Amino acid sequence: MSAPTPTVAAALSSCPVPHAHRTEITVGHGGGGRLTQDLIDGIFRPAFSGPQTGVAHDGATLHLGASRLAFTTDAHVVSPLFFPGSDIGKIAVNGTVNDLAMCGARPLWLSAAFVLEEGFPIETLRRVAASMQAAAAAAGVAIVTGDTKVVERGKGDGLYVTTAGVGVIEHALAISPTSVRAGDAVLISGDIGRHGMAIMATRESLSFESPIESDCAPLHAHVAALLAAGLDVHCLRDLTRGGLATSLVEIAEGAGLAIGIDETAVPVTELVRGACEILGLEPVYVANEGCFVCILPAAQAAAALAILQRHQGTGEPPALIGTVKAGPAGQVTLRSVIGAERVLDRLSGEQLPRIC
Amino acid sequence: MSAPTPTVAAALSSCPVPHAHRTEITVGHGGGGRLTQDLIDGIFRPAFSGPQTGVAHDGATLHLGASRLAFTTDAHVVSPLFFPGSDIGKIAVNGTVNDLAMCGARPLWLSAAFVLEEGFPIETLRRVAASMQAAAAAAGVAIVTGDTKVVERGKGDGLYVTTAGVGVIEHALAISPTSVRAGDAVLISGDIGRHGMAIMATRESLSFESPIESDCAPLHAHVAALLAAGLDVHCLRDLTRGGLATSLVEIAEGAGLAIGIDETAVPVTELVRGACEILGLEPVYVANEGCFVCILPAAQAAAALAILQRHQGTGEPPALIGTVKAGPAGQVTLRSVIGAERVLDRLSGEQLPRIC
Q1: How would DSSP label each residue in B95-158?
Q2: Cβ–Cβ contact B50 with A under 8 A
Q3: Which CATH code for domain A177-344?
Q4: How confident is chain B (356 residues) per 10-residue block, as mean pLDDT?
Q5: What confidence category does residue A9 fall into, taking pLDDT thresholds of 50, 70 and 90?
Q6: 3-class DSSP state for residue B347?
Q7: Tens digit of pLDDT for each residue in B297-330?
Q8: I need a surface site. Which of A13, A16, A316, B327 has the fewest CB within 10 A?
């Protein structure tokens, strides 16, 4: 493959200034890591948290009569709009389907709001809408309401799509970091890093021996099967912005526990591993769009793995990658190939802007 | 007041090319008039309409167990972000609250997704979040989930906010254009044009004797009171992009009936009328954010007006402005001050970009 362009190298070596000095939004605030968390904790959570409910991670869980609902939203600003394995339409549908699935909900209905830039080709909009409908049909959800706004040339970037979703929760489990217990097994549904590397390769015109395709896929069927089997699922999290490492830190903090991961157990394809090495990226921080962790009692790990295997897509098989421990709250340790342990932090700064 | 700037004059005199020749998105596609309808009919409705449900106007009505839900979304790209009487945060909350109310639903929960431009002041984001929370509290809804994305400088315009909302429908009425009957009364909840003229005055730095303030306000309490009184509400529609004229054409088309409006009965403040005259705009095409039409049996018009009067805000009182007639489907006629009748069409092209 070709060497990284100066743009990539500059992005990778950027050293963010300390948060206390920030008065303006930086690209890193959209990275899904520490700065995004600062915005949520510093602005949105204090503003929006009411007495009954707060701003949740993947989505909110709500009571309506005898029903429990999940409700979630995601803005999609991925660049480019089309890339190997997916596009902004498919990612907008699957991203919201997956957020609902991670709440343990059966996804039902989606909304779609489009911000179009003047001059955007109508034929491209038609392609995106068709891709959204195909993804919705594949996931068994309906896009039931929408909105369209147009901004002047130079005030957007072709197309931004925001989806929101509503699903129904049909079990009594509380799927949340607070349900996680010491001794629980940490499973992963497949290999990591394909989405992020697919975007980076496309954007920077890097050429690999074979193209890396995004893992973008709906995950609701995996979750439905785990629940149908009566497994005592404690926590689910899809590994989007910030990757596996950031997700595990968030879960460990929410649980008030530690998590230990075995690096050799984390599935990564050779292609993704090679591309990450050349670019100086760590696979555990690279975003995915069709991969999640499932945390549940260790005694149920084998049964869960068997179910995840039956739903395996094009990638590597699911794996048991670690254990929840009664260590320091929020501490995630990674034991490397040579047996050395190091602590993983949230993604800091911005590894790759506009990944989703 | 000062004369309109060349920008305004150019916008007003713009003559859109015929739709058949369009291959790119124009600013007019976001105007809420004919071109927006072309996008919905030509792209979104064919793509997204499934067997069970279609893309609705203000929102979708959905069945979940014994409950009926309403679900809606709106992207907000208003420029400037702050203007007399409102701001992007207040409009994002009230816009979605009102779309739910127009479905006859009691608004419950909102999501909020932010697309931030690199360099946007964090303090301004804090002001917008505070404004959203104040509007949510005033409307009795909770902002329960959200998302934040960042785009590079020059790929946005400070801040775009997309809200989605879920509400519950607690009555058996089918509030829809298809429920409208010949002989029904057409009521309006207040005076028209204040939101559009507030934005235009701010954006073009026009100075009036006293500032025109946006009418941005939640409308769910008006609707709840109409329903609580047991009135047989046939159709509700808030008069946003495209204004009163476009909304009535849409309703008349959906009903397969004609509507006759008496221009002298339509409340317009002297300030708004004067500003419209100078700028060559017609108040019936100017957007509102706190005004709606209610269509119901003529025998219930007086009772409905009394209820709307009790919920009157700062503007003019509600009024009976017209009647549904068994004329040509979709025909809306306006009888002028001098008694002349003319047919109103949808807003064509773009009167005022990025009004909401």
Answers
A1: HHHHHHHHTT-EEEEEEEEEEEETT-BHHHHHHHHHHHHHHHHHHT-EEEEEEEEEE-TTSS-S
A2: yes
A3: 3.90.650.10
A4: 36 40 87 88 85 60 92 97 97 98 97 97 97 97 95 97 97 95 98 95 80 95 98 97 95 97 97 91 96 98 98 92 96 94 87 85
A5: very low
A6: coil
A7: 999 999 999 999 999 888 999 999 999 999 999 9
A8: A13
Contact A186, A257 (CB under 8 A): no
DSSP string, A299-355: GGHHHHHHHHHHT--SSPPPEEEEEEESSSTT-EEEE-TTS-EEEE----S-SSSS-
- CA dihedral over B100, A111, A98, A45, signed as positive or negative: negative
Q: Are A110 and A136 in contact (CB under 8 A)?
A: yes
Residue-level pLDDT at B348: 82
Angle at B158 between CA B153 and CA B160, to 5 degrees: 120
Q: Mean pLDDT throughout A29-54?
A: 80
Cβ separation A168–B30 shorter than 8 A:
no
Q: Which residues pair with B260 in a beta bridge?
A: B323, B333
- φ, ψ of residue B289 to 5 degrees: the values are -130, 15
Q: Cβ–Cβ contacts within 10 Å for residue A226, how many?
A: 24
pLDDT confidence tier of residue A1, bands split at 50, 70 and 90: very low
CB pairs under 8 A between A and B: 289
* Dihedral of alpha carbons A234, A239, A244, A250, sign: negative
The two structure tokens encoding residue B105: 């639903």
Q: Which residues 62-121 of B are in CB contact (within 8 Å) with A?
A: 62, 64-67, 69, 71-77, 108-109, 111-121
Spatial separation of the C-alpha atoms in residues B60 and A254, rounded to whole Å: 35
Length of chain A: 356
> Can you tell me which residue has the tokens 């500003």?
B275
Give the closest residue to B195 by CA, choosing from B203, B187, B185.
Answer: B203
d(Cα A34, Cα A23) in Å, to the nearest integer?
Answer: 16
Domain ranges for chain B, please list them. 8-169, 177-344
Question: Which residues are within 8 A (CB) of B4 and not within 5 positions of it... i.e. 6 or more apart?
Answer: B12, B204, B206, B278, B279
Amino acid at B217: A
SS3 B20: helix
Quote the CA–CA distance of B287 and B74 in Å, as a whole number.
Answer: 15
* Contact yes or no for A207/A257 (Cβ under 8 A): no
pLDDT tens per residue across span A163-197: 999 999 999 999 999 999 999 999 999 999 999 99
Give the three-state DSSP class for A164.
Answer: strand
Tokens of A137: 């049909």
Are B72 and A145 in contact (CB < 8 Å)? yes
Amino acid residing at A229? A
Based on its alpha-carbon atoms, the radius of gyration of chain A, rounded to whole angstroms, reads 20
Place of tokens 């949340």: A176
* Partner-chain contact A47 B146, CB within 8 Å: no
CA distance A288 to chain B (A): 16
Q: Which two tokens stand for residue A86?
A: 């997916």
pLDDT of residue A6: 33
pLDDT for A13 beyond 60: no
Alpha-carbon gap, residue B238 to B98, rounded angstroms: 7
Residues contacting residue B243 through CB under 8 Å, at least 6 positions apart = B192, B193, B196, B283, B284, B285, B286, B287, B288, B347
Determine the CATH number of domain B8-169.
3.30.1330.10
End-to-end C-alpha distance for chain B, whole angstroms: 24
For A102-160, the DSSP string reads: HTT-EEEEEEEEEEEETT-BHHHHHHHHHHHHHHHHHHT-EEEEEEEEEE-TTSS-SEE
Q: Which residue of B has its CA nearest to A68?
A: B64
